[in-house]
Amino acid sequence: MRKLTLLLAAALAAAPAAANVLEGPATVVDGDTIDMTGTRIRLLGIDAPESAQQCRRDGAAWDCGKDAAAAMDEILGAGPLECTAQGTDRYGRTLATCRNAVFDLGHEMVRRGLAVPFGNDAPYEYGEARNLARELRFGMWAGEFEEPAAWRAANPRLAPIPARAEADERPARAAAQPAARETRYANARGCAIKGNHSRYGDYIYHLPGQRYYEVTRPEALFCTEREAIAAGFRRSKE
User: Fold this and answer.
1) 3-class SS shares of the chain: helix, strand, coil, % to 5
2) What rounded mean pLDDT belongs to the chain?
3) d(CA 224, CA 231)
4) Could you tell me if residue 123 is inside a domain?
5) What predicted TM-score, i.e. pTM, was given to this entire model?
6) Which residues, in sequence order, are CB contacts of 54 under 8 Å at separation 6+?
């Protein structure tokens, strides 16, 4: 009986992990970002050309960013997704790896030559997919292209705000006096400030400990109040 009790306790303790899995249909935002019923998901381990980015192929300019988004849309057509979340970024986007019955989204985008492995989160298999795409001259490898991160850094006005933030990982400036440190709200799952729409259509964010925090279902997550305000949200009054 004691053994059974311990097993049940262990199972209950592990239950919250299921909250890190998101399931359902999704729509395309761009070559490495999707939207699942209002949750914006940035795919881990890949970087695709931005929507405004152009590459060169056969001696002419080519809208590789738009083609990457079109490829992602086609991949999403294979059915509903299962995404494993691994926190959020500074703009409240969920960071996750996603797959449907046919594809691992990140792997397939790299295999088609319309994304490249990115960061320390990229699985080894993504590197193999890149090597195959390069060898067979798929997608961007059929011509000339600039790495998406380098393109964002060179074209900050053309990249969307979250992408500009990713590109702007410069060393801290040697300012005469550092700015006061903002309070950051985070937990084991990432940023902890919850933002959503009120029934009146207002954009409101709730801090941990505020009256309605626990019952609020987040539509966006932020680590600092400045991020929430920059995204158009106002602080809950209670």
Assistant:
1) 30, 25, 40
2) 80
3) 11
4) yes
5) 0.61
6) 61, 62, 63, 64, 65
